[in-house]
């Protein structure tokens, strides 16, 4: 059974940084794409970043380019999201997702497995 567990969320002031972690278990994720999505109150879930562990292909949403970095620790089956220069509009629940494949998929419905989410709140 695949499980994804996010951690690292919290409250931070605008301009600050946070690093989210997503630990996967239940199988080896070497052939999987790992993604981060977020959902703010009253808004639809949106794509943030994704990385193919098979090809190392990475893709970011335009609104996080230059501020967020996605990376993986293959030995630990973990994917990270380093978030810098945080803005109040980054406030959301952040979800980790996974699916088998080689691309950096941006559609939420393209992913098979999801974590429970971790809250990120950025104060102004």
Give the CA-based shape: globular
Q: Tally of extended strands?
A: 11
Question: What's the SSE pattern?
Answer: EEEEEEEEEEE
Rg, nearest Å: 13 Å
Instruction: Report the mean per-residue pLDDT as an integer.
Output: 95
Report the helical percentage.
under 10%
Number of helices: 0
Report the major sheet: 7 strands, mixed
Low-confidence stretches: none
Structural notes for this entry:
- The protein is built from no helices and eleven strands.
- It is mainly β.
In short:
With 124 residues, this protein is mainly beta.
Topology:
Elements: E1 3-7, E2 10-13, E3 18-25, E4 32-39, E5 46-52, E6 58-60, E7 68-73, E8 78-83, E9 92-100, E10 113-114, E11 118-123
Parallel strand pairs: 2-11
Antiparallel strand pairs: 1-3, 3-8, 4-5, 4-9, 5-6, 7-8, 9-10, 9-11
